[in-house]
Amino acid sequence: MNVTKQINLIKRVDQLTISLKQALIRNIFFMLPSLLTIPFYYLAFNNIEIVKINDLKGFATFIASSYPSQSIFSNGASIIIFIDLIFLIVDTSKKGKSLHDKLGKTYVIKYTLTN
């Protein structure tokens, strides 16, 4: 089978859709950390000291020293994603459900469309 002819799609099962509440619960792990860091980056980019920085390491050091709470949020997000991955790896139902799928009462089905 030619790999270029395969298209992976998300397919609704039995024409069921998830509710807004389920979608928010399922995706809160990924949305919340990003939303919480917006104020820190807003403050950082409005700080006059940022014009002196010319590399990524300097920027990371500047953010970490100027806004230590941002590091807490970023590290917390990494831990949550790691825990989500562990749930996926040790899933005993073999349905490939990670933590965010279990909390949102959803699951993903791989559907391959071939010609």
TrEMBL record:
Domain of life: Bacteria
Pfam families linked to this entry: RDD
Topology of this chain in the membrane: Multi-pass membrane protein
RDD domain residues: 7-104
Protein's cellular compartments: Membrane
Keywords, comma-separated and alphabetical: Membrane, Transmembrane, Transmembrane helix
Regions that span the bilayer: 24-44, 72-90
Membrane listed as a keyword: yes
Main location: membrane
Protein name: RDD family protein
Organism field: Aquimarina celericrescens
